[in-house]
Amino acid sequence: MSLKLHYQDAKQNLREAGVETADLDARLLLQSVAGLTDTDFITTDTILDEEQKRTYSNYIYRRMRGEPVSKILGYKEFYGRTFHVTKDTLDPRPDTEILIEQALKWAKGQERPLNILDLGTGTGCIILTLLAEIPDTQAVACDVSPEALAVAKTNAQQLELHERVKFIESDWFESVAGQFDMIVSNPPYIPNPDIATLAKEVRNHDPILALEGGEDGMDAYKKLFSSLKTFLKPDGRAFFEFGFSQGENISRLVDDSHLHMVGITPDIAGIPRVVEISYGEK
Asked: Largest Cα–Cα distance of the chain, in whole Å?
């Protein structure tokens, strides 16, 4: 059977299993198995060998059962770079690129080398992207999960950024020392009662620690904002991602913590997504 026929069968199986992105997923998995670029996939109709057939069938079966393509392949693209992912890490998502853009806008206006703290680093996609985009930057990245830290360290090595970042196991600020020019984080913000309603790709394959935000989704922000002044330099900036319909709660928490909200930026769908915070009083 030719590559294209395998692709047609896989698409049909994924569609029947209710996978909304059946065509794309079947193509990405097949390209990985056959080692094909996007152009190769269009111009080539090769024959899969027996090992490739078995691997592709296994991939499609796993995808039919709800496992995300990223977890099957073990990597995910983010801001033009490839990041290793596992069951112990939240997949990098396009919405988080809004945080990157806002952080870069502020950072590139500074005339000093920056020291950045990343809280709950996961794959390291936020801090490693910032390090790659901003020369002369140093960073500390922390996570409560040693397994996630191992993934982040692997990504730092692969991107040749490991000499500019220190990874520490810490429950938010617990083991952090010093002050930073910039603090960034994508904390867990899903209200606990909403976890059961998430897509099975997220609910069953992303770590629960990276999802559960407490009854109202605000638990992490309450902890982080209350301690922010201790760790953020007076002329620094903090950038936090937050969830759908949480903008008002975020604004209230910033005010209650005697911080200054510089602004809130929406994602590509127009949904408020990233808050920028400064040290100064209102």
From this structure: 68
User: In a 10 Å sphere around its CB, with 0-12 CB exposed, 13-18 middle and 19+ buried, how is residue 168 labelled?
Assistant: middle
Predicted confidence (pLDDT) at residue 282 exceeds the cutoff of 50: no
> What would the two tokens of residue 129 be?
């992207």
Burial class (CB in 10 A: 0-12, 13-18, 19+), 112: exposed
Helix (H, G, I), strand (E, B) or coil at 229: helix
Place of tokens 């099957």: 72
Taking only the tens place, the pLDDT of each residue in 149-198 is: 999 999 999 999 999 999 999 999 999 999 999 999 999 999 999 999 99
Secondary structure (3-state) at 177? coil
Q: Which residues contact 34 (CB under 8 A, 6 or more apart)?
A: 3, 46, 48, 52
